[in-house]
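$ run holo --ligand "iron/sulfur cluster" --emit tokens
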Amino acid sequence: MHVALVLTHDCNLACTYCYTGEKFRSDMSDSVAAAAVDLAFASAGDVDIGFFGGEPLIAWPRLVSIAEHARARAAREGRRLRLSVTTNATLLTRQRVRRLTEIDVEVHVSLDGDRAAHDATRPARGHRSSFERVLGGIEALRSYDQPLDLIAVVAPANVRRLAASVGFLIEQGARSITLNPAYECPWTEDDLAAWETGLEAVAQMYAGAMRLNMPIAMPTFDNKLFAAAKGGLCAGDGCDAGDGEIAVAPSGRLYPCARLVGEDRDPSLAVGDVQHGVDLDCVRAIRSGAADPACEPCAERWRCTSACMCANLAETGSPTLPGGVQCWHEQTTARIADRVGAELLAERCQTFLEWVYGPDARGIDPSRVDTARSFDAVADTGVRSVARRRHLPIVKVTA
Ligand code: SF4
Ligand code: SF4
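-- output --
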């Protein structure tokens, strides 16, 4: 169980697509934090705690004290513990990076791309640019050799800079680049065409890094390729909200995932509280909404991640109903990923084989891979690439 602690509703940025709603100071109390850690340790297996916000570094003392407490407890109980923080990096100093390194907290940084792309969507409050401050935080991470895991939100306002932006993130030394679509924005057909052009260019960067034996994780393509290699999505690839993941609001109320906390004012999305635990009936009620019958015959269904509650809510207002932009994205990224994967297979790229099939691929003789049959030649899964099939109508969510 991944337990996401939303430490505060406050934030120093004013991102145009922000899903967390109104910003206000209401930090997590000691008692809620202690109960949230208990919840994380109550689940079997490894303990996994993430810090979110608002901007979690605004609640820096609380973050450090929770991390220290969890580390000490994990050592006492002989449990493996993963700690991570997702931050806008504007408050990340060298001293803070040093402390995060000491208590072994992974850092994920939101940066929407190059200056023009980032400034279009992630201004500081008061319309000032936050770009230089984010780069300062990244420099602090580099000075402690922290790997750079970057998250860029793709929105209509920055989509035309997608290729330039990903190029910039690679120049920064990114180990992984997560491209999160802003499904809450209204997208036009022109925007989607620009997005597709950008994704094609990004796929070539992904392949180029493979060819140089310096792979960069890009879930946009990786998820499709890994699913192809395995014959479908595995546990953890789809939506874990309310099941493998739970989020704790500063008030102590529980939500299926961090994105659904919002302003913590929608009781229909709450699934219990930190003192009494997860109410599984509430989780089931949220998950039991109508699905789109049009998905039933879709050839991409087996690796479509449109079960994602927060993406669905953002676009259609229903946690179980995928929207047209998400459908378009699923099919477009599958098609591009398949093509770039087939190219790398045709070249018998050893780095790519190991990336997709794991260390066992070291035993595969690349010269014997039947590239004409794509991935199933190696994995023998019977899976085939599918063409883009349909395009649901675009739903525009009104405020
Ligand atoms: S940094 Fe995060 S919480 Fe702050 S405005 Fe941007 S998206 Fe919202
Ligand atoms: S790609 Fe579109 S139609 Fe196919 S399963 Fe996903 S959301 Fe449904």
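-- notes --
The chain is about 40% helix and 10% strand.
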